[in-house]
Amino acid sequence: MSPQKRPSARELLTDTSVEILATVFAGQVRSAVIERALKQMAEAEAEAVARGAAHRRQAVTTLSDRQLAILRLRADGYSGPQIAAKLTIAVSTVDYHERVICHRLEAVNITNAVDRAYQAGIFRRERHGDHAGYAAHLYRGEDPCDACKTGERAYRNNLRQQREAAA
Ligand SMILES: [Zn+2]
Fold first, then answer.
1. Residue 5 pLDDT more than 70?
2. Which of 51, 85, 137, 155 could form a disulfide with 131 if both were Cys (CB 3.0 to 4.6 A apart)?
């Protein structure tokens, strides 16, 4: 008595089913591989960003007080000549300091250096040039910057005009 041969799983499936299964399985394998790769890339990216930020925070500690002041003024929107006038130094001296800042922060230009300083958490983004910026200075116990004083003046003039128009 020969044992009855049981049909294999392959024999129970049509060619089309096998094809579908193969496609689905290949897709799952591929997506798992891609997902793992993407996760590794995201982790590497996050690590690089964190390393870059730490590196720049470190780099900033090598900037002189004057260079930090220039970077801060640039962040507040002052131009090179305006910074030179404010610090009573030559424009060429500002340029020199800015080249050092860019080199240390590995920035292509001073705007990029300001961005990098923000990214590294060296500066907080503060609002300047309007009533809110002016109020924020007072709240921080500071003397408002020129941009905020100008903004505050415009704000008060505007309020007065509105009151006069309403009267
Ligand atoms: Zn301000």
1. no
2. 155
- Look up tokens 């020199």; give the residue: 96
Q: Which residue has the tokens 């003046």?
A: 153
Place 113 in a pLDDT band, splitting at 50, 70 and 90.
very high
Residues 7, 11, 13, CA angle at the centre, nearest 5°? 125
Q: How far is the CA of 155 from the centre of ligand 1 (A)?
A: 14
In which domain, by residue range, is 44 found? 15-52
Q: Is residue 19 part of a domain?
A: yes
Domain annotation covers residue 166: yes
Distance 53 CA to ligand 1 centre (A): 25
Average pLDDT of the residues in 45-58: 78
CA 26 to ligand 1 center in whole angstroms: 59
Instruction: Report the mean per-residue pLDDT for the chain.
Output: 83
Q: What is the pTM of this model?
A: 0.49
Per the structure, how many domains does the chain have?
A: 2
DSSP 3-state assignment of 83? helix
CA of 82 from ligand 1 middle (Å) equals 15
